Amino acid sequence: MLVAELAALRTFRLLEQPLEDPAPGEIQVRVEATGICGSDLHSYGEGAVGDTPCEYPMVLGHEPAGTVVKTGAGVTGWAAGDRAALEPALYCYHCEACRTGHHNVCAQIRFLSNPGHPGFFRELVNLPATNLLPIPAGLSMELASMAEPLAVAMHSMQFASIRPGETVAVFGAGPIGLLTIACLKLAGAGRIWAVEPVAHRREMARQMGADAALDPAEREAARELTAETGGRGVDCAIDCAAKQQTTNQAIRAVRWAGRVVLTGIHSDALVPFEVSPMRRKELAIFNVRRSNGETHAAVELLAERARWFAPLVTHTRPLDHIADAFHIAERYADGVGKMVVTGR
Q1: Do both 297 and 211 map to the same domain?
Q2: Are 215 and 197 in contact (CB under 8 A)?
Q3: pLDDT in tens, 228-254
Q4: Which residues have CB under 8 Å from 332's CB, separation 6+?
């Protein structure tokens, strides 16, 4: 099978590797589509994701969908040719987090695309049968690959706790920010602002349901948001960008006793927070760690609202052109929204 390894900073190499037959309880899947995530871009362009350095060579990619090739012993309900969205996390199911329903923070988690655990930028993969979710008829592979990031956005709504009519600011209108805007619309948010420096992404935010899109290069976002809410501030701010001062802008933009949700991943392991306004306002600060059981609902939502979500997938490149795919995605070039790497 063809595998795309990240061999060094901004350097991919393509090689052929063998793959054994699936073990009992496993399914072998041909990977048809894998989205490029912001954390993939951290690994590609920065050599780390937060405080976790890359260990070269490594295989990135954790937003996959594919087609069943063969099944291992004991597997029922799946057959060659079936289409599936693929869950990239392997849990231990025995630690305290797993036993209390917090599988996304499993103490022994193996997240495929992290160092030592190859991801999905390859042709074939063997997975436990529990990691496959059926793709409804009519949902494309490219759109099905959005299930993983959409599940993350859906999980963030648990912390945002949006009540009908509440105001929300979303910092960053990359794919996760755009999916968050969609989730906010479905949650009944009142006015939604997107704060995004890239012009075509501001337009995509409006198309996904943002009522306004601010360019932080033109005006300070927190000051503008405070002014537009009559000096009150927004009820909730969600930082999907984790760039420079976006978290502190979110803290400044929120009303007294408001909520700040941190979905994006900062490049630096240590980030200064403006603790005085955070304390004075008695803000609730929430961190998002992937998703926790929302992927089934994400697949269903993508199928129900395919026409709404389809414009987010703006670009595709085959696996043997993965270097081009990352080059475009890292630079926000060519009007890219979501870049999806497809089978060769």
Answers
A1: no
A2: yes
A3: 999 999 999 999 999 879 999 999 999
A4: 198, 200, 201
